[in-house]
Amino acid sequence: MKDEEEENQRKCAFPNFSSIEMRAKNIMTRTSRETFLATEIVINKKINHQNPMKTHGGDRKIMTSFGKSKLRYFQGTLHCVCAGTAADLEMTTQLMASQLELHRLNTGREVPLVAANRMLKQMLFRYQGHIGAALVLGGVDKNGPHIYSIHPHGSTDRLPYTTMGSGSLAAMSVFEARWKKDMELEEAKQLVRDAIAGGIFNDLGSGSNVDICIITKDGATYLRPYDVANVKGQRRGKYEYKRGTTEVLSTSIRKIEVFSETVRNLGDDAMDTA
User: Fold this and answer.
1) Domain map of the chain by residue range?
2) Are 70 and 84 in contact (CB under 8 A)?
3) CA 47, 222, 37, 139: dihedral to nearest 10 degrees?
4) Which long-range contacts (CB under 8 A, 24 or more apart) does 16-19 make?
């Protein structure tokens, strides 16, 4: 009985909630338009904001994926690039995509980037860093282009350029040395390419392609792959030798004689080397 009353109250407050909920669920099917990405960058119309990200999928020392997509499309020009735990990133971005769609349907307008940033940081702050999601949010709204870096604990920064992930320090050093305002498009793309290459060659967890996403107020353009910074070498031939190819020059067999055996009980101290 109590559940029915709560459902009726919700319907009175949001008469179209059911249809909104179904449309929000359908947004998940629209976020699969990217198929192969190894590095994602977000650049605004004037190229004043760059966001380089490398993407290898792996578990500590094992690389399980060299083409894992870490670019997420939310709505309009709003995009997000991710670094961290794959499962946390997947669920966090899916949840946020549905929440942003609900927000858009309830307000009847596109969600500003500052609102999306606040929703993400509040959700991550509630979990006190236990969700391993380091995000970079970028896009263009009525207030212009924006780049936000969102850390797993919920702290955020609004910067002209930013990097996240294991190769971010090397990439940031390139940005700090060469970035300037009002860069030309080709100059900015080369800068972003060099920054990501710095992360690839100075971090064991980074690698694969350099892909670029250019975001303007009219939409987004994907360049993938823009460059392949680390090409896997090709074997020139097969090295298979038949048995007996290598000659055995001599063979020596020695018998080992055991004179005595001693068994000692080490007890609980496993570090006893006496």
Assistant:
1) 37-228
2) no
3) 50
4) none
Are the C-beta atoms of 130 and 140 separated by less than 8 Å? no
Tokens 């070498």 belong to residue: 233
Q: Does domain 37-228 fall into CATH 1.20.140.160?
A: no
Paired tokens of 139: 């896009």
Pairing of strands 133-141, 144-150: antiparallel
pLDDT tens digit string along 207-265? 678 888 899 988 888 888 888 887 778 888 888 888 888 888 899 999 888 888 888 88
Give CA–CA dist 271/30, Å, rounded: 58
Q: How many helices (H) and strands (E) does the chain have?
A: 6, 11
Report the half-sphere exposure of 141 (CA within 13 A, side-chain side). 17
195 confidence band (pLDDT: 50, 70, 90):
very high
- Residue 120 predicted with pLDDT over 50: yes
Beta strands in 196-248 (DSSP E): 209-216, 219-228
In the block, tokens 């074997």 appear at 235
> What pLDDT digit, counting tens, does each position of 128-148 carry?
999 999 999 999 999 999 999
d(CA 251, CA 172): 59
pLDDT tens-digit series, residues 201-223: 888 777 678 888 899 988 888 88
> Residue 17's pLDDT is what?
42
